[in-house]
Amino acid sequence: MACRILTLNSENEWKKVLQWLDTRENPDNNVESTVREMLAKVRDHGDAALLEYSRTFDCPEFSPPFKTGLSEIARAAASVSGDDRAIIAEAASNIRSFHESQLEKSWFVTREDGSILGQKVSPVDRVGLYVPGGRGGETPLISSLLMNAIPAQVAGVREIAIVTPPRADGTVNPYILAAAHLLDIDEIYAVGGAWSIAALTYGTESIAPVDVIAGPGNIFVSTAKRLVHGRVGIDMIAGPSEVLIIADSSANPAWIAADMLSQAEHDALASAICVTDDAALGNQILAELEKQCASLPRASQATRSLQDWSAIVIVPSMKAAQLFANRIAPEHLELCVAAPWSMLSGIRHAGAVFMGHNSPEPVGDYYAGPNHVLPTMRTARFSSALSVQTFCKKTSIIATGSEFLNANVTAIARLARLEGLEAHARSVECRIPNPNA
Question: Which of the residues 1, 47, 222, 245 has an alpha carbon 20 to 30 A from that of 262?
Answer without folding.
Answer: 222
